[in-house]
Specification:
Layout lengths: L1 E6 L11 H4 L4 H14 L3 E6 L3 H13 L4 E5 L8 H8 L5 E5 L21 E4 L4 H16 L2
Bound molecules: 1,3,4-trihydroxy-5-OXO-cyclohexanecarboxylic acid.
């Protein structure tokens, strides 16, 4: 099973960026934990980050064209702005789970709306970086129960 894990803008600065909101773990730490989980289940993960909306769109298309079984995406600020990412997710038949490290609903009003959520199978919000593991676990379980 192949799962793509995508991270949007500014998440390359995780650990340094507003640690009181996002914590001290780096994106590499997140990837490392996901690799440990993936390896236990013989799952391949493809972990990427971009500060560019179009690159994230291209990667979603790639997930569909290369038969990935699922995508986990933290779209970061594009969550609240991007019709293009909504359309990319709606236009592929790969299931997508949206993850947010912080509880966006406890924060500024502009973070309460997600353009992507209606196109995703689910959303995990406010559980810290553990949310990525829960999302990956969901795909692992789906894969194992469909065997
Ligand atoms: C975020 C929440 C977004 O509102 C914000 O723009 C981010 C990170 C999160 O993981 O909590 O960059 O997606």
């Amino acid at each position: 099973m192949k799962i793509m894990i995508l991270n949007g803008p500014n998440l390359n600065r995780l650990g340094k960026r507003e640690p009181e909101i996002y914590g001290h773990e780096t994106l590499q730490d997140v990837e490392h934990k996901l690799l440990q989980l993936a390896n236990k289940h013989e799952v391949t993960i493809d972990f990427r980050q971009s500060n560019h909306e179009g690159e994230l769109v291209d990667w979603l298309h790639e997930a569909a064209d290369n038969a990935y079984e699922g995508v986990v995406i933290n779209p970061a600020a594009y969550t609240h702005t991007s019709v293009a990412l909504h359309d990319a997710i709606a236009g592929i038949d790969v299931p997508v789970i949206e993850v947010h490290i912080s509880n966006v609903h406890k924060r500024e009003a502009f973070r309460h709306h997600s353009y992507l959520a209606p196109a995703c199978i689910g959303q995990i919000v406010g559980l810290g970086t553990y949310g990525y593991q829960l999302a990956l676990q969901t795909f692992i379980q789906k894969g194992e129960s469909s065997r």
